């Protein structure tokens, strides 16, 4: 692997010119970007590189925002549950929230725009029976039903952009002004953002900018802080902060009905991505996406008219520009850039349609919480690169880069050396596999309520961060991101309307019961159940993880229990003995297992229904891994699947077994599970990857079943010719 250049973006920093020149040369970078909290001086801008300039559309313009505080962005918030111990109670509805971030909106009549709800009965309290004290932000309910609980759903203004607030607190920015977000649905704000961008593009200071990096457009993902300035709730896909009275009135005109505050508050769940979306909420998402796409398109066209490229950051104010939404390509962006936490988040970026190129920000960010004396940031960099590299082999992004303060990173020579290696390796991979179709042994569909809209980012609370309740599921996405299978995302609505696509080999349904990912009450739909059973029975494969197809109905909890061969004990059939509990001595699915099986949080009380259920892993009276033949098809059950190299192999074998394609498994295959093989038949090449930072030995099988022994250095990728012409 020789020294190459290009396809790398370096974060810039003022008064760091000579060091920046060194990093540009060593990393082969051809672009420099600023960051939130940094600016590029003239010396940096004079370097021979593309210049990315961060551009905030609806924040960072406080002079305008302070003159139009009535056009601040809005959100519906819910008070704490309050017990009525007497007939008249007072609720301090805003007491839980950070008053520097949000404040109640009294400009719009609360009697029209707010709701008080008896949560014990779900009845809306008549507006005649409550009054507000605007001075101390309290609401008094008259004639309350004793020992019922009540909440207030109130409209609030957002006074401080959540990302800037987070960065402000994390980096101790002291007296730096709080950036006020404003809403482009409102008249002054709409006119302002268009005119400001025109003026900005014409300003001589910005002539050197080659790429306008929109961060992002108009509405921030839902991130609200509590009274202690700690995160209260966060949903990376939440549309809560895109609400406004203007939006609700425009929606009513378009759809013929008024959206209640409860549509947004949703019992205090705030339409978490894990909630099965209501018809009203789905219609609101579609409505907002159309508006955002139309408005963003106007700004992108201004950038193009100025001879510059338009890039969108996949984060911050990205709501309404979900890149797998049907309106996203209409915006006309040149590029998308996002943070890469691993393989799944890389595929989230690289699979996006409708843009010319895709860029990933790799970890760690050059922030003081990682780059401090005594810490070795190289460890995180190695883990990040090796996990993302698997996904790059399947669908490469076009550029990589880093963010933060390069002056911090420069103090760690070992880290700088490693990133130099990463940059060279990335360019080599890209040159070999870009535009190539990698070998895929199966086509796999992931079935949930969201379908393609949330491709590669199901099971996320905050972007890519660990969460106890979801790591046993999103490990499945991480495993698939670099596996030799074709992955698509289907929604229940699509399947009900159009049926199951003919080219699907295996369907995966994974998640906790009642969530959007398992499906909830949709599994009471006899059309869906019958369709799925028929498809599996006639030869399809079904893999269920956690609580698949789960809703108590008709004496079953897993509605596809007959296909899976297992169900979950809810306590209703304790009087019935569970006879089948002897695991098999060996099974195809676990042939590569070298460590103790890891099902993460697992699932309790899963039992085998029949003697023909293949129990693969069993302990404490519970099935953790099992399989079952169902007509010509098969079902496989897995109690949980956190990401690991071994679980990646367990999942892949489960898919092949479910599809009745075991005989095809050892095509482009490494028998050491810490290694993987990626083949590119059209390019007559294949690559062998060592996915660890230790030496590995493996037998590598080609597409015809022949194998050869290989020893790989730590993290090595070795390129081989499929057919040397002999």
UniProtKB/TrEMBL annotation:
<dbReference type="InterPro" id="IPR035356">
    <property type="entry name" value="LBP_C"/>
</dbReference>
<dbReference type="InterPro" id="IPR035363">
    <property type="entry name" value="LBP_M"/>
</dbReference>
<protein>
    <submittedName>
        <fullName>1,3-beta-galactosyl-N-acetylhexosamine phosphorylase</fullName>
    </submittedName>
</protein>
<feature type="domain" description="Lacto-N-biose phosphorylase C-terminal">
    <location>
        <begin position="668"/>
        <end position="720"/>
    </location>
</feature>
<dbReference type="InterPro" id="IPR035080">
    <property type="entry name" value="Lact_bio_phlase-like_N"/>
</dbReference>
<dbReference type="InterPro" id="IPR013783">
    <property type="entry name" value="Ig-like_fold"/>
</dbReference>
<dbReference type="GO" id="GO:0004645">
    <property type="term" value="F:1,4-alpha-oligoglucan phosphorylase activity"/>
</dbReference>
<dbReference type="InterPro" id="IPR012711">
    <property type="entry name" value="Lacto-N-biose_phosphorylase"/>
</dbReference>
<feature type="domain" description="Lacto-N-biose phosphorylase central">
    <location>
        <begin position="443"/>
        <end position="663"/>
    </location>
</feature>
<dbReference type="Pfam" id="PF09508">
    <property type="entry name" value="Lact_bio_phlase"/>
</dbReference>
<dbReference type="Pfam" id="PF17385">
    <property type="entry name" value="LBP_M"/>
</dbReference>
<dbReference type="InterPro" id="IPR013780">
    <property type="entry name" value="Glyco_hydro_b"/>
</dbReference>
<feature type="domain" description="Lacto-N-biose phosphorylase-like N-terminal TIM barrel">
    <location>
        <begin position="6"/>
        <end position="440"/>
    </location>
</feature>
<dbReference type="Pfam" id="PF17386">
    <property type="entry name" value="LBP_C"/>
</dbReference>
<dbReference type="InterPro" id="IPR029062">
    <property type="entry name" value="Class_I_gatase-like"/>
</dbReference>
